[in-house]
Every structure is written in structure tokens, then in C-alpha cells.
Amino acid sequence: MGYDPFRQAPAIERGAGRRYLNSEALAQRAVDILSDHQAMDIALLDISKTASFTDYFVIATAQSPLQFRALDEYLEKELKAEGVEQRHREGSADSGWMLLDFGDLIVHIFSPEKREYYRLEELWGRSTPVVRFTG
């Protein structure tokens, strides 16, 4: 059973007196942030059944180094406001690829050329459905 965009999961779970986004709500929030800030060709993959290191990948395309940096800043700022810290970042805007690790969610931002080269949806899509968001 993969990601069902029509299923409503509780966005906030409570534990030890704290509120936090569950992994599905976190992934949906990242998709919303990227979409709101004009990222292109956004894809969501629920890899929770096939990977132990994270639950979701969100993959998006940025059109310029400036947009890469802006998307990174928006994600970090807006998810931090939800209580989710960015744990790690790899790559750079100038390299055409960035990985942003938020624990239960990993966001990959690519230039169009690097996205075509790496084809993560094709690689991971063999074992999990890919949900695409178009604007």
C-alpha cells in the first residue's frame, strides 16, 4: 500500500507532551512549500516499506542556483516553525543537486539536467508508487 493522496492521516501526533508532524504530513507540507515557491515537477515517493533510513522522498526541480537557495531556505524556515529541524544538507545550488535531510523526509532538489541524469523516480519507482504534483 503506497501513498494515498485522498486518505486523511492525522497531521499532528502527540507524544511526551509535544506536538509534531507525522511523516506523511511532513512530506505533504514539504510538497506544499515547494509548490508555493514555484519548484517544478514535484514528486512524492513513500519509501517506508523499502528503506529503513527515511519514510518519504520529495523530488523537485529548480531552474536556477538562486531558486535552489530560496527553496532550501523556505523549507528550513517553514518546517522549523512546524518543529522539524533540517538534520543534514549535501550538494549545492551550483552543483545542480541538493539533498535536504529532515529525518522522516529527504528532499532532493535537482537542476533539469541532473534530474534527467539521476532519474531517482525511475530507480525508486520500481518498488513504490510515484505521486506527481503539477501546478
Topology:
Blueprint: E1 12-15, E2 18-21, H1 23-36, E3 40-46, E4 56-61, H2 65-81, E5 88-92, E6 97-101, E7 105-110, H3 112-118, H4 120-124, E8 130-133
Parallel strand pairs: 4-7
Antiparallel strand pairs: 1-2, 3-4, 3-8, 5-6, 6-7
In short:
The chain is of the alpha+beta class and 135 residues long. Helices cover 32% and strands 30% of the residues.
Task: Return the string of H and E elements.
Answer: EEHEEHEEEHHE
State the CATH topology. Beta Polymerase, domain 2
Mean pLDDT: 86
Instruction: Name the beta content range.
Output: 25-35%
Report the biggest beta sheet as strand number plus sense, adding barrel if it closes: 6 strands, mixed
What is the CATH-assigned architecture? 2-Layer Sandwich
Count up the domains. 1
Compute the number of strand runs: 8
Largest beta sheet: what is the strand line-up?
5-6-7-4-3-8
